[in-house]
Amino acid sequence: MTWTVVLSVVIGIVIKMVMSPPSAVVEWVVSKIALHPKLVLNEVTITYNKKHLEKEEKNKFTDYFNEAMFLKQYDIFPGNEKFFLQPETNVIPFVVNVKRGKKELNFFVFCYADHVDVVKQFNKKVVSYRLRSDYLQKYQEYLLKQKEISI
């Protein structure tokens, strides 16, 4: 009799957890499959025009990237990946390398006047999407002005 009560309580708890998991579990699962993930400062190396960004600049970039608003995802058909990875444009991309454990992600961030295009490359897959971030667009202009001053 007691085993049936204990077993029914355990089954009830398992069903309750499956039907409405805790928010921490849901957040963890969503973060694993998110198209536009949040960058963690310790896991990221950022290069712009073949130069690594230093701590303060890197911190600003990651904050701006994390605050950017997702607009839409582009459709990439097999064989067209090179058009997204190396578009015919004069915009210099930010190259973001993220290393989480054994996984390595590469982001190519192209900042235009009215939007930001991001190309995410992981394993052999390529995904592209558009962001809206005034800060990222202004940040690229700021870096270009700094480069002109240092020359």
Output the keywords:
single chain; seven-stranded antiparallel beta sheet; alpha+beta; elongated; 151 residues; 2 domains
Describe it for me?
This protein is α+β, with helices and mostly antiparallel strands. The chain contains five helices and seven strands. A seven-stranded antiparallel sheet has the order 2-1-4-5-6-7-3.
Layout of helices and strands:
Elements: H1 2-19, H2 23-33, E1 44-48, E2 51-52, H3 55-67, E3 69-74, H4 81-85, E4 94-100, E5 103-111, E6 116-122, E7 125-132, H5 134-150
Antiparallel strand pairs: 1-2, 1-4, 3-7, 4-5, 5-6, 6-7
**What's the overall geometry?**
elongated
Radius of gyration: 21 Å
What pattern of helices and strands is seen along the backbone? HHEEHEHEEEEH
Strand order of the largest sheet: 2-1-4-5-6-7-3
Count all strands and give the number: 7
Number of domains: 2
What percentage of amino acids are in beta strands?
Answer: 25-35%
Helical residue percent band: 40-55%
Q: Could you say which structural class the secondary elements and strand pairing correspond to?
A: alpha+beta
